Amino acid sequence: MKKVLLILFIFLCGYQVQAEDGYNAWLRYTPISQPALLSAYRTQIASCYIPGHSPTDTAIRNELQQALHSMLQQSVSFTAAIQPRALVCARINLLPAALQQQLGNLLTNTDSSGYLLKTISYAGKNLTVITAKTDIGVLYGTFALLRKMQEQQPISNLDEHSSPKLKLRLLNHWDNLTRYVERGYAGISIWNWHTLPTYIDPRYTDYARLNASIGINGTVLNNVNASATILTRPWLLKVAAIAKVLRPYGIRVYLSARFSAPIEIGNLHTADPLNDSVRTWWQEKAKEIYSIIPDFGGFLVKANSEGQPGPQSYGRSHADGANLLADALAPYGGIVMWRAFVYNPEATDRFKQAYEEFTPLDGKFHSNVLVQVKNGPIDFQPREPISPLLAAMPKTPLLLEFQLTQEYLGQGTHLVYEAPLFKEVLETDTYANGKNSTVASIVDGDLNQHTLTGITGVANIGNERNWTNHPFGQANWYALGRLAWNPQLSSDTIAKEWIRQTFGCNPKVINTIDTMMLASRETMVQYMTPLGLHHIMGNGHHYGPAPWSNHAPRPDWDPVYYHKADNFGIGFDRTATGSNALAQYQPGLRQQYADSSSCDPRFLLWFHHVSWQHKMPSGRTLWNELCYQYNAGVNGVTQMQQQWKNIAPFIDPERYQQVTMLLGIQHQDAIWWRDACLSYFSSIAKLPIPAPYPMPAHPLEYYQQLRFPYAPGN
Ligand code: BDP
């Protein structure tokens, strides 16, 4: 008996560990426990009818089989004819003629990837229909229905259309061919290059499922700091093997292309974009790629940035470089995503450089080029004003780049829900065409009438069992996909969707986690870089604080370059008396930042060098406000710890423990940030930390001598 109990115990523990290790992310499909709802779902979906036989239809069938079996706790039959109370999943032209007639016009305004979910009565049968113009649309509709069920919503009276607002909804992996992930905090790359193309890790399929479920339709497999090797034939075959797994899920593969590849793998002496041999080389390369991967998406290029090769080495422009590749890809429908993340150490203000290099090129890029712009002018800081470039290239399609991997944002250990950051950017009014020219309206093509549109996120995915290391990192991946589908969704809506699917539908759990998530980004800004401070992280690893740092190989990698603290005050003067970067914004936005007395305090030190005694809207002096903010940030983390504790009984022990421990690190780190920064700034301002705030536990020198030679992702 004892033995049986022991086995049962181990089994149960094992089951729990398996079930909640985070691998399934938001596709957990837990059994529906409410009897009324379960019975309603069982009544509504008594069988499934999927007439198609494409690989995407197979993916739909597999997903439904797994999901319905698990949620409804009974197997659902797939029938060859439409039965009463069936779930019908088919693209419109595979439906019986009468149904095509009934539903066809409802799809008129639907995009080729959009879908229709509709409850109808047909030949006396009550049916739930998922239809679309394409198989991929049906797949998206299937995931939309499953999302509703996981969220325990009624499905008996469906009438929903949805089409993606953006065409390209992408991930950028910064994965090296060695499997080391640059700025990766979730293990090594999921792409097991060494065993490809023969060994196909089942994880690739789950990656595809997770992405398709949120509408992601493309992925750049390798780091922007690219190795040319990926473009050689043996590696293209590996890429093709991944593409084959992702294809049924509507996901195309793209590659980061190294601009000097013609030299490195093509035996040419130059990579000059205007050289005929170079042009021919890229044309041949494109031909080869498409012969192996017929639906290859195109190239992402980082050129003349941080030591990467590019056209400027030959006296040519970014447009010359981008057009060279674009022309090679054009016959096959491929695109080029040319990054605007450029800066050089000679510039007086790194902020200004992308704008200066790219705006003269507006209108010079070929039609299959997008310029890929990071959300801010510097680099993925906890808070940045928008990149002024976003409003300054009306003739060029712009692809907005966000970062999911949390470089500068506490990496894989801090709970930071990034949707509020994404939304802040998307909702910023650029005044490009007068009022209401939001970043969203530029990126979605509405403002300047572009049809090639997109959003991309630097992936936070690795081979950790739960994909992102921090269980809440999954929410950022989720949010990126959902916002790229519909930039109007709110952070709150997305968070709640994610929580219901990831942690269940207990209202206390939903509300508590939602509150934690929504506050988390502001909390991080407070304990890291309040009031518009930026780039004061330690050199290289970009994890902890190092505002004193002034020895980097380039001045624009040094924190002192950005905060400019001196005994008068702090902040980077970007007004006309300083670098005048502000002039790069349209007047409507510029004037919001121009005056230090009216500038939104969240951006103050981005644009002004103000006295330590500067009066803040709160009534405090700047120095006191800084002390207040850093302490508020620490308190914010304490609060998250308490909130998480309050829902302990409702969270599975494994994820509960994991998040508890990670919040513990975050709390220590927040204190470290506060104490290191306030010690340092206090030493410069020659002002004491006022009561009632706690004194740092160590002298400034202690914080200054900390070293992190093996911090991940560096
Ligand atoms: C910076 C990262 C660096 C990347 C670079 C980029 O520190 O590792 O290579 O961005 O975006 O944030 O290219």
Topology:
Blueprint: H1 2-19, H2 35-44, E1 47-49, H3 55-72, E2 77-78, E3 86-91, H4 97-104, E4 115-122, E5 125-132, H5 135-150, E6 159-162, E7 168-172, H6 202-213, E8 218-220, H7 233-246, E9 252-256, H8 261-264, H9 276-292, E10 298-301, H10 318-329, E11 335-339, H11 353-358, E12 369-374, E13 398-403, H12 419-427, H13 439-443, E14 454-458, H14 473-485, H15 491-503, H16 507-528, H17 559-563, E15 569-570, H18 587-594, H19 604-607, E16 610-611, H20 622-646, H21 653-685, H22 700-704
Parallel strand pairs: 1-2, 1-3, 3-5, 7-8, 7-14, 8-9, 9-10, 10-11, 11-12, 12-13, 13-14
Antiparallel strand pairs: 4-5, 4-6, 15-16
- Proportion in helices: 25-40%
Q: Quote the beta fraction.
A: 5-15%
What is the CATH topology assignment of the largest domain? Answer: TIM Barrel
Name the CATH homologous superfamily of the largest domain: Glycosidases
Strand runs, count: 16
Global shape: globular
